[in-house]
Design brief:
Order of helices and strands: HEEEE
Helix content: 25-40%
Largest sheet: 2 strands, antiparallel
Number of strands: 4
Distance between the termini: 103 Å
Length: 111
């Protein structure tokens, strides 16, 4: 009868010792450290360049070429979207946009 009690008791004791030793092992592996992460953000910027020469007077039927390019001047790759408007105007506002002259037709502007 004693053998029947001793074997399960030894199994329980060995299981308890295994669990305790395992938890102590995992506790000793746990390491806490702190670091300072230096994060930098990308510099996204671009520049519009224009090659455009026009005399003061443009005659009907004459042709004026304007070459517009957008260049990436930042330190990361970017996808540039450009919006083009057909407009005639003589002056610009404070932001550099052309003030449109609505009396002139833009049908003769070819893009």
């Amino acid at each position: 009868m004693k053998k029947r009690i001793i074997i399960p008791a030894l199994c329980l004791i060995s299981l308890a010792l295994f669990l305790i030793s395992g938890s102590l092992t995992f506790a000793s592996w746990y390491v806490r450290s702190e670091t300072v992460n230096k994060l930098t953000t990308a510099g996204v910027s671009g520049k519009v360049t224009e090659e455009y020469e026009q005399d003061r007077t443009v005659y009907p039927g004459s042709r004026v070429n304007k070459k517009v390019q957008v260049k990436n001047t930042g330190n990361v790759d970017v996808m540039v979207r450009v919006h083009i408007e057909k407009v005639w105007g003589d002056s610009r506002d404070k932001n550099g946009r052309v003030i449109p002259n609505v009396t002139l037709s833009t049908d003769n502007i070819k893009i």
